[in-house]
Amino acid sequence: MPELPDVEGYRRLVAAHFVGLTVRRVEVLDAGVIRNSNARQFRKTVRGRTFCRVDRRGKWLVAHMDGPALVWHFGMTGSLVVVPRAAALDRYDRFILAGDEDELRYRDMRKLGGVWLAGGGAAIDEIIGPQGPDAWTVSLGDFAGRLRARRGAIKPALMDQRVIAGLGNMLSDEVLWSAGVRPARPAAALDSGEVERLHRALRDVLRRSRRAGRIPRTPSWLSSQRDQEQPICPRCHGQLERGTLAGRTALSCPNCQR
């Protein structure tokens, strides 16, 4: 699932290739990913508009135009790619925004994500819904206060967009593993030293993954072991454990996360 660093990568992609450019053609290949409009209205509203700036809000992407804004959520398998106008279609291309030379294509295999049209700031807020502070910018004090107010385990707390915005299943595991905190540990039970260590791990994991524009799968990252039959801890080389918390898989090391 695209999380904060992936969406940051899409933000940079759109900003680099489309800000200042006008949409010359809109092609809707699958209207099912247009969430609050229909194909005809979407084409009519977006064609001829110019991209002005692109923002990321947690795991949401907001592309402001000289009129409406496009608000993306990427679900499990959504992504944005920029290709030349003559590039062959991918089977999962759902709609295309064409400039003079390049096309911005939204791809989504499972179609759990999509795009919304928003007329202004209040409409954008309504689409996105309540969110906590961005995981990249949340202060230690705010972070600590939000965890103290939580009931239940720390991993679901980190994934709750109303607590902090931007983390999903993979990043929450990565941050907890980096900090040496078990996923099932009650959030409110963490002492000040553990919260500080967790906040420091959060900053470090996001700094490195934002720079890459994705969650790395390199050998030094816990994420490299997610799809392995017998996952091994990159730090101590012991066997990793898989569990379930709040309906989501949790990958952790019983030796490193005590």
Q: Can you offer a commentary on this structure?
A:
With 258 residues, the chain is an alpha+beta fold. The chain has two domains: 4-128, N-terminal domain of MutM-like DNA repair proteins (Alpha-Beta Barrel); 140-252, Helicase, Ruva Protein, domain 3 (Orthogonal Bundle). Helix content is 30%, strand content 22%. It is built from seven helices and ten strands. The protein has helices spanning 4-18, 39-46, 121-128, 140-148, 154-159, 169-179, 192-212; strands spanning 25-28, 51-57, 60-65, 69-73, 78-84, 93-98, 102-108, 114-118, 241-245, 248-252. Strands 1-6-7-5 form a four-stranded antiparallel sheet. Strands 2-3-4-8 form a four-stranded antiparallel sheet, with helices on both faces. The protein is elongated. It starts with a helix and ends in a 6-residue tail after the last strand.
Structural topology:
Elements: H1 4-18, E1 25-28, H2 39-46, E2 51-57, E3 60-65, E4 69-73, E5 78-84, E6 93-98, E7 102-108, E8 114-118, H3 121-128, H4 140-148, H5 154-159, H6 169-179, H7 192-212, E9 241-245, E10 248-252
Antiparallel strand pairs: 1-6, 2-3, 3-4, 4-8, 5-7, 6-7, 9-10
Helix pairs in contact: 1-7, 4-7, 6-7
Helices, by number, come to: 7
Q: Determine the fraction of residues in helical runs and give it as a percent range.
A: 25-40%
Q: Biggest β-sheet: count, sense, barrel?
A: 4 strands, antiparallel
CATH topology of the largest domain: N-terminal domain of MutM-like DNA repair proteins
Contiguous uncertain segments of 5+ residues = none
* Total DSSP E strands: 10
Give the mean pLDDT: 97
Strand order of the largest sheet: 1-6-7-5
SSE class: alpha+beta
